[in-house]
Design brief:
This protein is mainly α and about 150 residues long. It is about 65% helix and about 0% strand. It has helices at about 5-25, 25-30, 30-45, 50-55, 60-70, 80-100, 105-125. Helix 3 (about 30-45) runs antiparallel to helix 4, helix 5 (about 60-70) crosses helix 7 (about 105-125) and helix 6 (about 80-100) packs across helix 7.
Length: about 150
């Protein structure tokens, strides 16, 4: 990764300023600054950067899974949030071998795409023609109305 001397100097100064900001605000340490630093390490080719990146952002990934899983109410019956986080983390780790996001925003967009793909695969597994949930009674209703009462035979 090459850059002009003035560009490298500006980048170095930016990191010095960010380190001072982080020293004042410890909440910032676990967020965008750390993610950007790990993304920079990933760009350079650090083999441990992918693992560190996923570890550093695990709670944010978990929150993202919870948010996206809310759009798939039927899957909550079959899959736990932590299981989806684990499977998505493995997929994200593999995706980072080929894709090197430039910014934290790009990273979390990639993570959201990976999570959506995991949920699509789980939906196909459970609600496909031979899936466990394909012929089960639904305890949830999409429009918010109460489910129909069971029929006595």
């Amino acid at each position: 990764m090459s850059c002009g001397s003035s560009r490298c100097e500006l980048k170095r100064l930016a990191w010095v300023v960010l380190e001072k900001v982080v020293a004042l605000d410890p909440v910032q340490t676990s967020s965008t600054v750390v993610v950007q630093r790990l993304l920079d390490q990933l760009q350079v080719g650090d083999p441990a950067a992918s693992r560190q990146l996923i570890t550093a952002t695990l709670e944010r990934l978990r929150a993202l899974v919870q948010k996206i899983l809310a759009d798939h109410p039927g899957l909550k019956r079959w899959e736990d949030v932590d299981d989806v986080v684990q499977n998505s983390s493995v997929r994200l780790w593999k995706a980072l071998e080929n894709h090197h996001p430039q910014t934290p925003l790009d990273y979390f967009r990639l993570a959201a795409t990976v999570i959506r793909r995991e949920l699509i695969d789980l939906s196909r597994k459970y609600f496909g023609p031979l899936g466990l949930g394909a012929n089960q009674a639904k305890s949830w209703v999409a429009d918010g109305s109460a489910p129909a009462a069971p029929i006595d035979l």
